């Protein structure tokens, strides 16, 4: 029985930064990572948020159909692959309406679980939070292997992907970290673009509201020069890298 009910944090009806065109975004509730810079820390616990049906989301999506026709629907989070059947069913129904589907994921999921969701996914927005294993762990509190295996799998099945990398001064801006990530991404066959997302602190107040310790309080935002330097490293390897709206 396909899950028709899932737990979401919120929806956004006019998203412009999570995939091509104007998009309807579903932010699912629950995430296995604990990123230091998480801009949605209230998305992470699986028991928070609210339960909704796929029918409800589709009815909301239908209301926006005229302006998302050239964009589509993105399921983000949180981590959508924590609710694979729910996410797949949203995408399947979107495809019935002729809408483009994008999955925004950290890739921290068993490939066997992700497979059926990917059948209904047109584009994967894959966040790779660092390349050096110890740095990846420091940023996310999980290990890197699962995400890299997902990246390789997406390349093997030639699933279109945008890679996203959050550039955090004094943390992920380690030159070797970026160079090694660029070397890895250059081996993938399916990457249409790589977005460098400059760190900013717009989510800080949410950490404070939740009473969580925010360890990046003294970290400055990523400067345009730092972003340009990172983009150049990716471009040197033939990757279509651009600067994007940060987190
Ligand atoms: S993967 Fe996204 S939602 Fe999950 S902790 Fe990291 S930034 Fe937050």
Core attributes:
single chain, 247 residues, 9 helices, binds iron/sulfur cluster
Q: TL;DR?
A:
Its main location: cytoplasm. Belongs to the organic radical-activating enzymes family. The chain has helices at residues 54-63, 65-68, 84-96, 111-119, 133-140, 145-156, 175-186, 204-210, 224-236; strands spanning 5-15, 23-28, 50-53, 72-76, 101-105, 123-127, 161-167, 191-198, 241-243.
Describe the structure.
It comes from Pseudanabaena cinerea FACHB-1277. Pfam families: Radical_SAM. Keywords: 4Fe-4S, Cytoplasm, Iron, Iron-sulfur, Lyase, Metal-binding, Oxidoreductase, Pyruvate, S-adenosyl-L-methionine. Activation of pyruvate formate-lyase under anaerobic conditions by generation of an organic free radical, using S-adenosylmethionine and reduced flavodoxin as cosubstrates to produce 5'-deoxy-adenosine. This protein has 247 residues and is an alpha/beta fold. The chain has one domain (5-243): Alpha-Beta Barrel (TIM Barrel), CATH 3.20.20.70. The chain is built from 9 helices and 9 strands. The protein has helices at 54-63, 65-68, 84-96, 111-119, 133-140, 145-156, 175-186, 204-210, 224-236; strands at residues 5-15, 23-28, 50-53, 72-76, 101-105, 123-127, 161-167, 191-198, 241-243. Strands 3-1-2-4-5-6-7-8-9 form a 9-stranded mixed β-sheet. Helix 3 (84-96) links the parallel strand 4 and strand 5. The radius of gyration is 17 Å and the shape is globular. The N and C termini lie far apart (37 Å). Bound molecules: iron/sulfur cluster. Iron/sulfur cluster (SF4) binds next to loops. Iron/sulfur cluster is lined by residues 31, 33-35, 38, 40, 43-44, 77-79, 106.
